Amino acid sequence: MMDFVFFVAGLGLLVVGAELLVRGASRLALAVGISPLVVGLTVVAYGTSAPEVAVSVGAAFAAQTDIAIGNVVGSNIFNVLFILGLSALIVPLVINRQIIRQEVPIMIGVSVLCVALAWNGMIGVLESGLLVALLFAYTIFLVVQSRRETQRNAADVANEVDQAGTGGWASSRLVQVGLILAGLVCLVIGSRFLVSASIAFAQSLGVSELVIGLTIVAAGTSLPEVATSITAAIKGERDIAVGNVIGSNIFNILGALGLSGLAAGVAGADGLGVASSVMAFDIWVMLATAVACIPIFLSGREIARWEGFVFVAYYVFYITYLILSAERHAALETMTTAMVYFVIPLTLVTAAAIYLRSNRTGDV
Q1: What is the spatial distance between Cα 171 and Cα 12, in angstroms, rounded to a whole number?
Q2: Residues 243, 41 contacting (CB under 8 angstroms)
Q3: Helix axes 65-78, 283-298, angle to 10 degrees
Q4: Beta-carbon neighbour count of residue 2 at 10 Å?
Q5: What values do phi and psi take at 285, rounded to 5?
Q6: pLDDT in tens, 10-66
Q7: Is the separation of the CB atoms in 339 and 345 below 8 Å?
Q8: Contact 179, 32 (CB under 8 A)
Q9: d(CA 79, CA 82)
Q10: Domain encompassing residue 133
Q11: Among 17, 198, 213, 227, which is least packed, fewest CB within 10 Å?
Q12: CATH classification at residue 197
């Protein structure tokens, strides 16, 4: 019972901490003259991924590398399949051309890099440093790019960052710094509660820490993305709904995974050990979901409701597969056969048809 209380408390602190961090940092950045576009693409997207960083880094320090890896991989899968899918079910999501041409290729690129670095079963400290360096390079790239934006676009992004509204109390620099510090404290405490409770759940249920990380922890740390994207979809701010997910996925790999590897090195390890089951299945699912965005996004440059349903259905299939595999259930073989000989081929044919149709209509 106490483990459940700690788990719920941890999730609550992560959500509150992320909200405080995003609100305080965005207000402070705007107040000191940082481009509103950069604030929208970095502070907001990175802020909603702060729980993933807190949990993965905390797990790395505690030598719970399966949770650190599973949290990042599982969160990226959850973000694309569940959050984008659910958002599209609420309202079809129109995709900005810049997201298709720039952000999605970057997301796919860092996903491929993640697979390459994990190929030998270990993401070393130097490789983790490379990921963090690439995060800085990506952020600098956004800063340089933002200077070329028109004043109209900058105002649009400023409005997006300010979507939650502000009161007079939030105009004080001291209050903004206080929000940032309070958010960080909530994230640290919440991550410790969540990791400890998750490990206890895994031990009591006989489920591996990796499965817990890929499912419960991954979904829990993605709650800020869920809230942001669904709220944005309901309000009709569809660029935010999509951009939040894509930006968070990039940050999860470069930031959460990179910092976790560095934390593992500080704790005395050689880096983050990657379980063979992750390399055999889960990391490829993560890469496949990233690649799947291309044909889906190109289909008239929107995610239709039926495509959103397919995304959510795939996530249900994925979670079901993990549970059946963990329990070594008799139905696992039947489900695997159905996925290999029916679902995956049908998906590939559908994706190819969408891509060819997009070529003919000039959406590419």
Answers
A1: 26
A2: yes
A3: 20
A4: 8
A5: -65, -40
A6: 878 877 877 777 677 767 666 666 655 566 566 767 777 788 888 899 889 988 889
A7: no
A8: no
A9: 6
A10: 2-361
A11: 227
A12: 1.20.1420.30
